[in-house]
Please model this.
Amino acid sequence: MQRKLRLAIVEDEMIIAADMQDTLQELGYEVCEVASSYQDALLLAKQQKPDLFLLDIHLKSDKNGIDIARSLQELKIPFVFVTSHADNSLITAAKETRPFGYLIKPFTKQDLFATIEMAVGHIVYAPPAKNLFVPTGKGKQQVALKDIQYVKANGNYVEIKMENRRIVLRKNLKEFESKLPHAHTFLRVHKSFLVNQKHIMAYNQLELALKDNTKIPIGRTYFTELKNTLSSI
Model:
């Protein structure tokens, strides 16, 4: 059975967002969450990894949908613009970000469905990378992503922990996380820990246990996302 397409909505008008969410679910799509700001949208992109964003251009904040689109480009996540305005200057700016579609409000249920399906038809899904090359004293070494249990931050360094060895890099955790393939299954569970989901055996509100019984603390602000992600596996 083919999995449902996972969509994310960026819209700061909550009534409109709720209506879109209901319509998308009626059409058979899975809606990850609704974001209403630049910061929320990027967090959603990195944590829930949607297949496609529906992105309102006009947001009541210092950064708009086009700013979000530029960041989504870097993350290689496709998006469709949704807007009630279609002036030439806006279309020109939006076009430079290479959206997968452009939907003008108000739109019908069929308009929404057609725009999403046309966008999906143009998305090229590459198989996720299985390895990562990390610098060592002798050049670069290939590491299998499935073998990484967790990554721990220590100031400007990170420790990549595998079952029988570890590698220390001069890089902060945020930088390391940004280099991971988008589709891979790593979760930030603490400000200092990034964990491979495949190695998690059990968890509670305070900590999680890996298959080798290593205990990792769970930050209070990360628990809900951890619970939601693991419950959907």
User: Anything to note?
Assistant: The domain at 131-231 is CATH 2.40.50.1020 (OB fold (Dihydrolipoamide Acetyltransferase, E2P)). The chain is about 30% helix and 30% strand.
